[in-house]
Structure formats: structure tokens, C-alpha cells
Design a protein that fits this description.
Two copies of one chain form a homodimer.
Chain A (H helix, E strand, L loop, with lengths): L1 E7 L6 E7 L2 E5 L1 E3 L1 E2 L9 H6 L5 E3 L1 H6 L3 H6 L3 H5 L5 E3 L3 H6 L2 E5 L4 E4 L6 E4 L1 H11 L3 E3 L11 H21 L6 E6 L5 H14 L3 E4 L8 H11 L9 E3 L5 H10 L3 E3 L2 H7 L2 E4 L2 E4 L19 H5 L2 H9 L3 H27 L3 H11 L5
Parallel strand pairs in A: 4-15, 5-6, 6-7, 11-12, 12-13, 13-14, 14-15
Antiparallel strand pairs in A: 1-2, 2-3, 8-9, 9-10, 16-17
């Protein structure tokens, strides 16, 4: 994997870049649609390509439980399994094991947990997490980490971050000989010195990219922004910077402004399934009765398949009836919006007017309801 | 609407034909995918076109409840509402009102029922059923009928069939001035003389096409085949013949052999959502663990998107995980199979070797499990 910064916004930290992988080029800043269990819910690989998705995310935790990473390996890897030929980033499983599974014990070895699917006893450790990701054959792997919840005491966070650093070393060891890239994850909750310590230790170990973890886990928006704004510019200049699990369109704009290159979040896909749709004028909830006979598209400014072909009235009807097509058309729209948002930011940065673009974005982006 | 018989199979009743409507041509025999509430579940209009669907069915009962036929009319009709430009046939609401709603009273005026959605009190009558279909703007409307369940006494069936004839007259009256075609529905359960009486009365009234109703409602396969085989050839030669709500691939083959031109059924779409998939060698259930690591497509002989791109192993995984993409990919496959089946029958009839084709079909079509 190669990474190159292509342009930087005048006074700020925002930047465009290019990640080159054996499976294709990724223009940064980029948003990665989440394909939890080997599919971006309701969307075909061809549609993802049509949306301009350059990289998607697969969840190590989900895939190791179902269908099982060894099975995926026997079937030729995740790309072949799900019919997606462009790059895939797999997460470490750290976030899901702490949010979905029943944790039995966090020990030096790793995390002992019970599957939320069948209750089976499992161990997720630097070695197993990287082993799973090697079986999946992703283009970018994440080192195994502890994702701390919020709030957390300074004492616990300090213990945890030291363990995450030791796990990062072991993750790197476990990745030896693989041609898959490996990113490190900076932990440390909302404590600046812990984040700083973790970052320095990870740089010392050396990774292909650096991520900020444990954001959007319960802390306030201000705290999240503070961590992102302080930490992102400190991540190595010559490697991709990735903020995990974030966030709203506004979060992405602020992340890009802070110098972040990569994002993933279930928000566009999950919100779509709940009828919450993003537009350049703010969000709208399609179940609102105001749209019952509205012949206009979700967003007149949007060029997605859903907006080109269907009215708010029809989409509201599909949503009210819980029709399968509802989830799909809404998801197509929201993903298009997120990917288009990233494209517009890349353009603005390259043109050297990101700050101006950002001001305009906020002026128009106000809630429609 | 114009209908023309193009070719007939040598000794039998099977025939090919062409229905011409303002919205396009329909090659018969044809299968109509069911778009219950304004969408074929999970499938976009473009995909339907890609599958070669020439006409789809919309349900009067569902659409009058949600979003409401007057609303659809204000939004420009069902075609515009759902983004489907080819022909649509709407049913009479008769079958659904008897199978889904709480019937309060069947009277001469019509059927008083309570909506299964919100419990509201409604009347479905020849005038309201046709009025709804006029609001929806379908290309082919069905006259309002009573769909008798099975078993039913001769006495009740006789009363019912006479009422259905009176309703058919009123339906025709209600359709006056419309450029939408109107089909009559032959009722009479499993009683030959009642079916015959109904058929003659409907021909007397005069319709653009003739359907056989109340099949596949609980009677045995033999009884169904007997009604279909006896009745279909008696329906007017120069009008489309339509068997409603039928059936399995075998039922379609037998229907075509009896001289039927049109079919609709939820089987390909509903079965797909339950993981039951049709192949040229029989059906398979994708949840079977035998497919867990099977890299082959559902049917190596099939040219559908699902079979061209995805393995049984992946489709099984999606089904087990209840992924939205599962329902969609399975539905695409089953609809492709049904439409391909009709296409192969049209070819065989036109080539004059339908009986030979049918023998070959049955030889290969045996259950895989």
C-alpha cells in the first residue's frame, strides 16, 4: 500500500491524497460504507461501484462468527465471497466485541467473550484478530485494541491504553509476512496525555496508517471534536489518518478539516433503514405525513438513482408499508450523499477553498423539519 | 387492447400470442410478477425490465388501503407512482378481501369488510373495485368477484356464482368510458356446471379477456388441474385467458398446455424470501448446510444476475444472517426462472414441439433435496 498527499488546504490541516493498493486506488478523504457481515445491507456490489465507493469496511467480529473466517478463506477470501473487487478494510473486532458480545474477561492474552449469535466461547486477541483478517484477505487490517467506553476513569484508561500498545506490537508481529496493510489505533479516551502516549508508541512500532478509536462512544460532541481536532494533525503526515465509526455529515466535515483521510460509519445505512435521509439542506424523515403527496425527489440537488426515479410520496409509502425496496432506495440515497460529500470536499481542498466551501455547507445544512 | 393468437401447438391447446397495449406489447403465455403494494418486493423497476418482465400485477385491495387509490390518482397513477412504464394488471380485490380482511357481510351491494391494516370499515363492490382500478390507471382491470374458498357446498357456490355474474355486469357498467381493458373472472369452484354457466354468462356480457378464479385455494392438485384443463380450452379463443394466483412451475406448464395465456403468483417472490429457489433440476433450499461452502451458482444453467455473480455459499450466508440482500438476490433469481420458463414455452410452442419440450422439462425437473 502506498500513500501520497496530493494537496493541502491553505491555512488548515485539510488535505487530499491517494492510497494505492493492489485492488485499486482510493482518493482521500474517503468515506467507507460499512458491509458488516459481507454485504452493505440491501445494496449489490455493482450498485456500490455505481455509487463510486472505492473501499468498503468489513467487520472482523461479525465475519468470524458467521460465516467464519476460515470458511471465507476456503472460498477464496472476502472479496471473492461477496463479489466486491475493490479494496476492503477490516476492523479489529475490538469495537464490536465490547458493544455486542458478552465479555467474560479482558486479560493480557486478549478478550474472552461469548458470541451474541450462539453463545459460543471465543478469544479475540492480537493474534486471532489479525489471523481472522488474514483469512478474510482484506487490503487494510486494523491492529487489535481495547475500545474503552465513556465515561471511563483515568486510571482504567491508562491501564487500557498500555495494554492496547502491547496488543499493537503483537498485532504487528502477527501480520508479518502478509502483504495486507496494517493500521494502528490510537486509544486513550478523552485524556490528552494518554492519547499522546499511545500515538507516540504506535509510531515507534510503525504502521501503514493510524486510526483514532473510541470516538462517538458516549462522550459529548465537544469532547469528540476536541480529541479529533487535537489528535488528527499529530498523526504522521505521510500515512493515512482514519477516524473510526464517525459520523454525521458535520463530523466528517470537521474531521476533514482536522486532517483526517478516512471515515466509516453505519449512520448513512442505518438511518436510511429508519427513514432518515440526508440532503444538502439538512435531514428529512420520509415517514413524515407532509410527504404523503409530495411528487418531488428527496433532494432536487441529488443525482442518485432514488432521486432520479422516485418521489418522496412513493418513498414514504414504501417506508410505511415496510417494503424491502424502501430500505434499499433510502440506503442508495444516503450512501450517495456521503460519497458525494467527500467528493465535494476533495474538490474544495484541491481548489484551495475548503474553508469557504465549509461555510457555505453549514449555511445551507439546516434541519428541514 | 388488442390480442392476437400467433401460433398453436400441433395437437394440443397450447398457443402463443401477443397482447398490444398503449404501454407496450406482451408476449403470451406470460407470467406477471406480483407487485402487491406498488413494488415487487425488493426489486427495482429497472431490474424488472432487465428480467424481461412485460407486465406486472398490482393489488387493488392493498393499494386502496395504502397509499389509497385517490392519492395514487392525484400523483399521476400507479405507473408514475412506482416508476414502472410497462403494462400493469390490477386484480379485483376479491381474493384479498376474502383472505386478508375481516369480512363483515357479503351482500348484493358488495363486500363490507374491515381493513387488516387499521380496522377501518370499507365496502368493496363492482363500482368501488372498478373505481379504484380506474384511479390506479392499470392497463387491465379485473371485474369484481367473490372468490369462494374450498371446500364449499354446491348450494353456496351456485348462489355465489350468480352473484359474481351480476357483479360482472355491474363491473362492466362501471368501466364504461375507460380506455383500460376489463377482464371477467369465471367462478364456480370445482363444479363443472357452475363454471360453465359462469363462463357463458360472462361471454354474453363481453370482456376483453377471461380469467379462471378460485384455483389454488385449498382444493387438491388433481381438482385444480381438472378445472384448468376442462375450462381453459372453453374460454373464448380470441381473447387472453388468465389463470389467477397459479402456481408452481409445473402448474404453469400444465396451464400453458391447457391453452392459458397469462399467470400471476406470489410463489417465485415469496419462496425466494424463504430461501426456496427454483432451478432447471428442481428446487433447492439455500439454507441447507450442504451449501455452506458450495462455490457454484444456484443453477449453473441460469443466466440471472445472482447466478452470474454469487455462490450458493454466499447466498446461504446472506440468508442465515437475514441480510436484506438475500431476499433481493433470491427474488431476482426466482423471477428470472419463471420468466425464462415462459420464454422457453413460447419458443417451444412456436417451434411446434411443446409436447416434446414438456417431457424433457419433467425428466429434469426433480427435487434436488
Amino acid at each position: 500500500m502506498k500513500f501520497q498527499v496530493l494537496s493541502k488546504d491553505g491555512g488548515g490541516n485539510a488535505r487530499t491524497g491517494r492510497i494505492e493498493t493492489a485492488r485499486g486506488t482510493i482518493d482521500t478523504p474517503i468515506f467507507m460504507p460499512v458491509g458488516t457481515a459481507g454485504s452493505v445491507k440491501g445494496i449489490s456490489p455493482d450498485e456500490l461501484e455505481g455509487l463510486g465507493a472505492q473501499i468498503i469496511l468489513g467487520n472482523t467480529y461479525h465475519l468470524c462468527l458467521r460465516p467464519g473466517d476460515e470458511r471465507v478463506a476456503r472460498l477464496g477470501g472476502l472479496h471473492k465471497f461477496m463479489g466486491w473487487e475493490r479494496p476492503i478494510l477490516t476492523d479489529s473486532g475490538g469495537f464490536q466485541v465490547f458493544s455486542l458480545a458478552r465479555i467474560n474477561k479482558i486479560e493480557e492474552e486478549g478478550v474472552r467473550f461469548q458470541s451474541h449469535i450462539d453463545g459460543s466461547h471465543r478469544l479475540l486477541s492480537p493474534e486471532t484478530a489479525v489471523g481472522i483478517q488474514r483469512n478474510l484477505g482484506s487490503d487494510i487490517m486494523m491492529s487489535f485494541d481495547e475500545c474503552t467506553s465513556y465515561p471511563v476513569t483515568y486510571e482504567y484508561a491508562a491501564e487500557s491504553v498500555k495494554r492496547t500498545i502491547r496488543w499493537a506490537k503483537r498485532s504487528k508481529e502477527a501480520a508479518k509476512g502478509s502483504d495486507q496493510a496494517l493500521f494502528g489505533i490510537v486509544q486513550g479516551s478523552v485524556f490528552p496525555d494518554l492519547r499522546q502516549m499511545c500515538l507516540e508508541a504506535l509510531v515507534q512500532i510503525g504502521f501503514d496508517g493510524y486510526a483514532i478509536g473510541s470516538l462517538s462512544v458516549g462522550e459529548s460532541k465537544e469532547q469528540m471534536m476536541e480529541v479529533m481536532n487535537r489528535l488528527a494533525p499529530l498523526l504522521p503526515e505521510n500515512a493515512p489518518r482514519y477516524v473510526m465509526g464517525v459520523g454525521t455529515p458535520e463530523d466528517l466535515v470537521e474531521g476533514v478539516r482536522a486532517g483526517v483521510d478516512m471515515f466509516d460509519c453505519v449512520m448513512p445505512t442505518r438511518n436510511a433503514r429508519n427513514g432518515s435521509l440526508f440532503t444538502w439542506q439538512g435531514t428529512l424523515n420520509i415517514k413524515n405525513s407532509a410527504y404523503a403527496e409530495d411528487p418531488s425527489p428527496i433532494d432536487p440537488e441529488c443525482g442518485c438513482y432514488t432521486c432520479r426515479r422516485f418521489s418522496r410520496a412513493y418513498l414514504r409509502h414504501l417506508y410505511i408499508c415496510r417494503e424491502l425496496l424502501s430500505y434499499r432506495l433510502n440506503t442508495l440515497h444516503n450512501l450517495y450523499f456521503y460519497l458525494e460529500l467527500m467528493g465535494r470536499m476533495r474538490e474544495a481542498i484541491a481548489a484551495g477553498n475548503f474553508e469557504l466551501w465549509r461555510e457555505g455547507f453549514y449555511k445551507r445544512m439546516k434541519s428541514m423539519e
